[in-house]
Amino acid sequence: MKIIITKDYEELSAKAAEIMLEVVRKNPRAVLGLATGTTPLGLYANMIADHKENGTDYSGIRTANLDEYKGLPKTHDQSYAYFMRKNLFDGLGIAPESTNIENGMAEDAAAECARYDALLEALPRDIQLLGLGSNGHIAFNEPGTPFGSGTHVVTLAESTVKDNARLFKDISEVPRQAFTMGIRQIMQAKKVLILASGANKAEAVCKMVKGDVTESVPASVLQLHPDCVLIADEAAAKLLGE
Ligand code: F6R
Predict the structure, then answer these.
(1) Which of 16, 43, 33 lies closest to 182, judged by CA?
(2) Ligand 1: which of 36, 72, 151 to mutate, judged by most atoms within 8 Å of the beta carbon?
(3) Looking at 137, 141, 152, 225, which residue is catalytic?
(4) Which CATH architecture has domain 2-192?
């Protein structure tokens, strides 16, 4: 794993944009694996600024997202489909037909997982962007998820439901389940870019980089990826030197 340590979140976001833009400029038909959450927001803002200033072309780019809440339509303002449109796709002029994400409203969850598995197989990702959970999760693959897993439905931990409740009117509205890309499919991307910012990620960063490769720390699997780049700011990297 290649490790880049930046002084702060701003520099992390700029470095991440350099890596993402290199992929897009090299291959204007690249497939980008994308993530939601707080961490990629600075990267996404940089990509939009570059698109506006330098005209980087996204007309041939296709995307595949990691995860989606089960039970939320893509028009719901807390759905990940909505998040991506608002924070990235509209700013880059990427058409809805060029983007992919699990359908949170699918009636047959098993069929939806099979559909997404087939889609990911047919659309190999040139780069997969990841955030890191403070418990070492990647996408919604929580500790204990088999490394061989494909797309599946997860029941959210009560702590995750509570964390996310701030974004909903009432905790009863927070979805209890989500669809997620599996660890096997994250590992299939040609390149993986994982971002970690803030002291609350320091322990997870340390375990991911220096700990055993174990299913109890899902991100530790990335030690086995042939082209994985971690960008961590000083706060998130603070335990690496010890
Ligand atoms: C997002 C995702 C999650 C987040 C992780 C970190 O699509 O799958 O694994 O990347 O929970 O979230 P933030 O960036 O909000 O700290």
Answers:
(1) 33
(2) 36
(3) 137
(4) 3-Layer(aba) Sandwich (3.40)
